[in-house]
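Z., the sequence and structure:
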Amino acid sequence: MNFHTRKWVKPEDLNPNGTLFGGRLLAWIDEEAALYTIVQLENPHIVTKFISEINFISAPVQGDVIELGIEVIDFGTSSISLRCVVRNKITRADVLMIERIVMVNLGPDGKPAPHGKTEVEYVRDRLSKGGSNL
């Protein structure tokens, strides 16, 4: 699993208990999943279709640095399924796990459209082939 994004838990991210507000973390995860999908499918027109059970394991506090990990678990015809792990950057303790996030590729009409992808591609490989720079 690749951990590309790090977030610093700041006062504005906290709930009344003094820990990271779950909704803030879920927004960060949804954004990370969207960005990952846009790059993989080479299409900025995607939507979140499904997020499975969210397992909150521990609660980050102000000053913690967390990192979000995303990996592909399946390519559908018009979708991509991802797994997400959030962990504390310093201690490596798990914060949250989501076993399945389904993102859907959209065509110009705003409806699901086939994306033609079957495996993870890296931007560096596309650039060496002269492909898209998304």
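The helical segments are 22-41, 123-129. The mean pLDDT is 94.

Let me know what you think.
H.
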